Amino acid sequence: MSGQKKEFPITWGMVIDIDKCTGCGACMASCQTENNVEPQREASNKLRATSWMLVYELTNDKAFPNHDIAYLPRPCQQCGNPPCVSVCPVIATDKNEDGGIVSQVYPRCIGCRYCVAACPYHVRYFGWYDPIWPEGMEKTLSPMTSVRPRGVVEKCTFCHHRWTQAKDAARVAGKDPDNLDDGAYVTSCVQNCPSGALAFGDIKNPKHKVHELVKSPYAFRLLERLGTDTQVYYISRREWVRKLGDNYLKSE
Amino acid sequence: MGLDRRAFLGLVAGGTVGAMFTPIPWKLIDDASIWTQNWPWIPRVPKGQVDYVATTSKLCPAGEGLKIMRVAGNPILAGGNPSHPLSCGGVSALARSEVYMLYSPARIKSPMKRNGKTFAPITWEQALVEMAEKLGAAKGAVASISGDNTGTINEVLTALTAKLGSAGSFMMPSEATTAAKAMKLMGAQGQAGYDFENADTVLVLGADIFETWGTSSRNRKAFGANRPAGAKPANTYVYVGPSRNNTAAVCDQWVPAAAADLGVVALGIAWHLLKAGATSNAPGFDTFKAVVNGGFGPEDVKRATGVAPETLAAIAKALASAKAPLVVTGSPFGQGLGAAPVIAGMSLNMLLGRINKPGGVYMLPELPSVVPGALTRAAMLDGDLPAFLKGVESGKTPAPKALLIYDANPAYGLPEAATMAKALEKIPFKVSFSSFMDETAALCDLVLPNSLPLERYDDVATPYGSGFCVYSLVRPIQKPICDTKTTGDVLLGLARKLSIDLKFDNFQQVIKEKVASLAKVSGGFVAKDVMPWQVAAGKPAPALVGGDLWKALEAGYAWTMVGQAAQTAMGFAAEVVAKAVKAGKPATATVLAPYAQLRTGTPVTGMPCQDLTTVPDTELLGDTTFIRVNSETAKTLGLKKGQMVKLSGAGVDCQAKVHIFESVMPGMVSAPLGFGHTAFDYYSQGKGANYLSLAAVVEEPGSGLSMWIAPEVKIA
Ligand code: SF4
Ligand code: SF4
């Protein structure tokens, strides 16, 4: 861990309303196709599958009928204090001015997987296989995101390319690209969630909805006590969900 | 190349240790990485002009409007269309797959004819000649099956079938078929439509409304709209069903009850409403009251279902005191429910005075049909396909001489798969109009591939569950990738060959005429600034600017209408309820409680290639699917976590692994549907088991409808 937190004027953040997520997986499918993750014929082997966005099933561990479940969509948490950055020997990953988004430079990554081991949220994926699309399907690749070769580490980027596009659009419209309207830049998973469970915006910008949402008494972050200071917030009215999110032991 | 990437990196790493402090190795590593990642077989991303076009999803039954991103004219990404009332910007994992399915390895690339055990490609002209000959000879005994609930294509298909001498035109069984039967028995006019947007208290009996039931994307948007993150929700949803499924996971309350008991629970709530003075002028009220009071008191219901008296009383109170309560009834797995539970659920809406009211149930009129001789949707939904095929199998019903199968996969998607397959074998000539090599196509004599939704003209008219009449356009935004044709065009070509006049030359004309007919329906408008639920709530409907309708539809807007079919005789159908809903003793055998999810596709699509990743390892691991039981049931049956078991029912066996999941009722085995394909591509094939095949079909007393809502299974 770097132990040194940098502050940025623009801090992109996601707020996930767990009480609304039905666990449908549309966010996962959206992310995959937006970011050119190849369809994986071995995807039922979860140890080798890649999904930048992953929906976990949480349970309160009680027996029927007191059992309860919740779904927790998990993109890269974009830590303010990212454990993955300090362990990278080639500075392929970094946290910089870019809205506080933890970047990942694929051509520089040597696939040593220190970052995979360092990330407490398991958001980083090592490409075990060559990305191969069924014949013809490569025509559906998005031009916005490069295709990663086997042997490098990849992860959610908050659909960084969409920010670039939003800034360009703002410039064309004569607006300030550093002060985007709420909703001018949203990620693919946020846009497509049919439940409206996800929100996205600049946490520091009072005009953005997420600015207020993160202050909700029901908001929490994952493993908050590790001090990673993540930019993804979760909201649930259920106490057991909030406790689980911060990895409380059963005795606590 | 003799040196692979890993070995190369090893060499570099060996030399780096002593050189950490000069910038040169860093630069070298950078270059090396670039070099080692520059494999020629890694696809390059496309370049070209980006544009967005609108259409509607046809693969996903929820009818979402789509915005498709194209690069240099090629569709790249499907996202939800924010201006479409059934999408509001959301999209299901299934609708998102419209683009990728264009290149699915399971696509049928050209027309094919059976040649012994395999298929040989033929030309479209040969296919047409062959079909004309065989269907001409089969005249008087031609049947058809459609799996498309919402398309005008059904008019072409049923009109042609009728002219050929129909042995029956059927729809694949779904929530829509059950509900249509219920409405018919109640003497109601129109299709039941649920106004979630204006409802404040919603009781969901069984229906998986946020996953596979009806307009699920729209349902979720409506649910979420009044539930700001972290704040007190402005609406209340209660789910009643055998497991805490995707819908129950976000509802305010889950009331465990077997799918077979949904009608009993409804009548138990009716008992409270009647006691509190609810009354109705509708025909059959007195009989209904007598039935309810005669056997559905709180203790009766508790004995039969296990639902506590105070739970029922609280639900009844919440409904009675709500401003806009709504009751929705459906099957937890989207099919197989009898008509009686739907009638019982609808009776609650009647007692609460919720018919044709904002936030209640709108009885939606059918849109005008344009092909002469076509069956109405109501008539088509009236057929009972499982009963028909079972009759054919047993010899009670004469087998049709020919069968046309459109967008349907009965060999996989029906209960009692073994019986159904035998029935299909008895039909001498079968044609499948499928886009993918599915289980049914593999049994057919001719396979005539339909172009996919992004390659054809098609439409979506008022999917079941929509609270308003809605019509949206599906239009080709790319040329057919394979040698496929729009089935509508093929059928019209066939009609010409057989000298049958269906009025139209091609399917685009049919759609154009349909749109023209909508422009004349009074009360219809394009949902743009005003949405239909706002009109239902009292906002004036905007005028329809006539000539522009086609253009507006092409731009991705939907035509909508807040409709109410006039009701003259909608009643309680109490005789049916009396015969079919019984507060008996709870089942003692193990009962299968299947669930379905959009991410595992439909019988027609298989599992979309990108969606396999979204399936969790508690559902599918390797090639094995899991069943879910709670720990109490596991103990009773002697099952252990992760154990392989054999499920048997309807003369079929299926393998499964055991997952202990406490949100399933005792005595129930919850099982995912959508797996166990023997056809399609490697994303679907051989993954898990098809648990629907274990379900035996029984006849519902009172309605005569086929049902398979609570099949018993043996576990060994
Ligand atoms: S798309 Fe939305 S509802 Fe579905 S799993 Fe993702 S966050 Fe949850
Ligand atoms: S923000 Fe973008 S990259 Fe990250 S999970 Fe969502 S869709 Fe994927």
TrEMBL record, chain A:
GO terms for molecular function: 4 iron, 4 sulfur cluster binding; metal ion binding. It comes from the Bacteria. PROSITE patterns: 4FE4S_FER_1, 4FE4S_FER_2. It comes from Solidesulfovibrio magneticus (strain ATCC 700980 / DSM 13731 / RS-1). NCBIfam families: mnquin_red_QrcC. Pfam families: Fer4_11, Fer4_2. This is Molybdopterin oxidoreductase iron-sulfur cluster-binding subunit. Residues 12-42, 67-98, 100-129 form the 4Fe-4S ferredoxin-type domain. Gene3D superfamilies: 3.30.70.20. The keyword Cell wall biogenesis/degradation does not apply. PANTHER family: PROTEIN NRFC, PROTEIN NRFC HOMOLOG. Keywords: 4Fe-4S, Iron, Iron-sulfur, Metal-binding.
From TrEMBL, chain B:
InterPro entries: Asp_de-COase-like_dom_sf, Molybdopterin-Qrc_component, MoPterin_dinucl-bd_dom, Mopterin_OxRdtase, Prok_Mopterin_Oxidored. It comes from the Bacteria. It holds the Pfam family Molydop_binding. Residues 623-693 form the Molybdopterin dinucleotide-binding domain. Keywords: 4Fe-4S, Iron, Iron-sulfur, Metal-binding, Molybdenum, Oxidoreductase, Signal. The keyword Transferase does not apply. Belongs to the prokaryotic molybdopterin-containing oxidoreductase family. NCBIfam families: mnquin_red_QrcB. This is Molybdopterin oxidoreductase. It comes from Solidesulfovibrio magneticus (strain ATCC 700980 / DSM 13731 / RS-1).
